[in-house]
């Protein structure tokens, strides 16, 4: 947030009930990125199973007068779908919008049927 640039990282997590427990992350080096967008290609290729369960990225562009968007954008959802198409596995995706706050979703595609997203806090 302080650099005013989006960052993306691979995410390893467990989903228990309505909570995402993050066990570790690894930052992905920007590839074809500008200050407000990170190319999805690098994170999709580097953040797959079995080591990784999805991705986390920051939102830095202000959505309101004092806060970035707290939800996934249309472009974020496209990147999530690309991850599912590449890995054919359940995934966990988070967007961090402040130093202490994030929104995560766990979703599944196992068996070729996509379930309804579960919102986890």
Question: What does this entry look like structurally?
Answer:
This protein has 121 residues and is α+β, with helices and mostly antiparallel strands. It has one domain. Helix content is 17%, strand content 31%. The chain contains two helices and six strands. The chain has helices at residues 40-46, 74-87, and strands at 8-16, 19-27, 54-58, 91-96, 102-107, 118-120. The model is unreliable at 109-114 (pLDDT under 50).
Helicity level: 10-25%
Q: How would you state the average pLDDT, rounded?
A: 76
| Domain module count | 1
Q: Helix count, per DSSP?
A: 2
Rounded Rg: 14 Å
Q: What's the assembly state of these chains?
A: single chain
Low-confidence stretches: 109-114
Task: List key phrases describing it.
121 residues; alpha+beta; 6 strands; 17% helix
Write the layout of secondary structure elements.
Elements (H helix, E strand, L loop, with lengths): L7 E9 L2 E9 L12 H7 L7 E5 L15 H14 L3 E6 L5 E6 L10 E3 L1
Parallel strand pairs: 3-4
Antiparallel strand pairs: 1-2, 1-3, 4-5, 5-6
Helix pairs in contact: 1-2
Question: What is shown here, in short?
Answer:
The chain has 121 residues and is of the alpha+beta class.
